[in-house]
Structures are given as C-alpha cells and as structure tokens.
Amino acid sequence: MLLDISLQTDPGTISDDPVMEARRQIEICNACRYCEGFCSVFPAITRDKVFADGDITQLANLCHNCRGCYYACQYTAPHEFDLNLPRALATARVESWERLAWPQAPARLFQRHATPVALMLVVSLALLFWLISALPGGGDGFYAWLSHGAMVAIFTPAFLLPLVSIGVSLRRYWVETGGGAVTGKAMAQAIRDAGRLRNLSGGQGQGCNFEKAERFSDARRHAHQAVMYGFLLCFAATASGTVLHYVFDAPAPYGFWSMPKLLGVPGGLLLVAGCAFMLVLRRKADPALGAPGRSGGESAFIWLLGLTGLTGLILYALRGSDATGIALAIHLGTVLALFLLLPFSKMAHGFYRFAALVRDAGDR
Known about the structure:
Blueprint: H1 18-32, H2 41-45, H3 53-62, H4 68-72, H5 85-100, H6 104-112, H7 114-134, H8 148-176, H9 184-196, H10 219-246, H11 259-284, H12 295-317, H13 324-341, H14 348-363
Transmembrane segments: 117-136, 142-164, 226-248, 263-281, 301-318, 324-344
Keywords: Membrane, Transmembrane, Transmembrane helix
InterPro entries: Citrate_utilization_prot_B, NarG-like_sf
C-alpha cells in the first residue's frame, strides 16, 4: 500500500524522543489507515494531519495497549519504517504521567522501579505497627487496637493530599491537550466507555491481542474489570461505613449483612482475583510491545493493589482473635502505601485515561 499524504517527519528516521517517535509512527498510520476500524485511537488520528505535542499526549493516553494494531500492521520490523505503535504510545504515555505529575520526582521514581514501591510499603507497615503499639485504643472491634480518631488523623491527609496532586496533574493534562468545556453528553459517553472498558476489546468487540500474537481474548478486559469494580466496591464500603458512623451514629464493628461488609467482601475478592489474573497475563505478554523499563514498577503496584484486598479479607477473617492487631497493622499499612502512591504509580493511568475518553467523546 502506498502512503498517500506527505509526512511531516522522515518515516524511516527513528527518534529517541518519545513524543517525536510517537509522532513519526502516528503520521505513517494516518497515511495508511489500514487500522481505521480499530480502537478509538485510529478514528482520533484521522481527524488531524499535523500532530502537536498535546495531540500525542492525548492519543497516547487514549491507547489501552491492546496491541491488535501491531499484529495487523504491514510496516513492522523488518520493514524500514519499523513501526511498533503500542510501544511508542506506551512510552509516550508513561512519559506524560511522569512529566505532568505534581510533584514530578516521585512519579519518575515509582513508575520505573519496584524497590521504592516495596520500601514505601515497609515504611507504612512499620509506622502502623508503631502507632498501634504506642497509641491507646478506644472502642470495640478494630478500634480497641487503634482509636477511630487516630485512624481519621492518619488517613484523611493520606487520602486528600494525593487527590490534590491528581487534580493538579489532570489540570496540566487538560491544558496540554487543549481540552475545552466538558459537556454532559461527552461525560456520559466517557463513563459508558470506561465502565465497559470498551477499548480493551480492541474497539471491535472481539478481544485484544495482549496475551500472545494474533490470539484474540477478552481475558485482559475481564481482569481489569475485576480490579476496577473490586476497587470501587471497597471504596463504597469505606464510604458507607463513614456515613453510618457520622450520619446514623452507628460506629463499627459491623455485621456481615451490613452495607460495609456486603460491599467490601465481594470487592476484596474481585480485587484479589483481578490482580492475580493481571499478573498471570503480564507473564504471557510480549514485553517488546510495552514501555521499556517500566515493568518492575507496574508489577509491584499490581502486587500492592492485590495485597490491599487480600489483607482486608484476612483481617475480616481474623476479627476478634489475638491476631487482630497484627492483621490490622498489615492491612492499614498496605492501604496507607496505596494511598500515598496513588498519584505517582500505575494507578494514575485510570485518571488520565478517563480524561482522554472525555476529551475524545467531546471531539467526536
């Protein structure tokens, strides 16, 4: 197939700059358009002929790394164009997370390495063990080990400060990508796409090629859905407990048929199952189609997310026993590490991708 438009860059010149390299490959894709019916990235590409840096950032975050375009492409190596669009967009994507994060230094550290993630977990665990041993409890259930007031004092700033950080990052993203006013229709469409994880099906409903070559599968989509809905159920469980405590004057502990437990137990199970499934799938995936040098940090965060659900389930199973204090410290330490890493780890991708979906829905 002949390329039918002039390219802004030399199609055969590979760049070390992530944005420049992604632009080179996107321009070739825009000239070819063989993958026009694939995920949302390709219809978005066809809306432009010249791509600014902000356009590359938007397209990179709109990509869900399903990898179908790579296996369909006629310009991959050994062709002189040497296209690997999943890798190019993944590299530009993580570069944008690190560059737009506030502050930047922790994002660059935690995105690249597993060791800092593990260290943050160890420090959080040590802090919670020390607090439980040093501070008097006050109440029933878990509060007998660490009072409600102490938990609020620890976790309120640990939750709010990362949200402020993410808010600053998303504002930077929106400005860089040229996002305008958000309409209700665009927001509703983005919520539907995010809820179904439509782009993880390759956009055609047949599944993606993440696991192996040309094998289509919805396994990765289902794993992400388990993690996403598990996390949301756990968050809803915590929120419902907060409402019961402050609005209805009904403090913990709660029985199994209470809202916090009916939401939290299934949420924890989904979170653990989804994270375990994702780790298995990552072992099957071709590392050459992802962002180089980020595998350790990504895997470490999946482990941390899964441990958050697992330690919560273990704590519930051990309630009322002599091991409750130890289980409580481990669970709260894991949750604390998760919250503190929220803006700087792979978890940030959910916020950026939702913003990309909102922007794309508005463009459409």
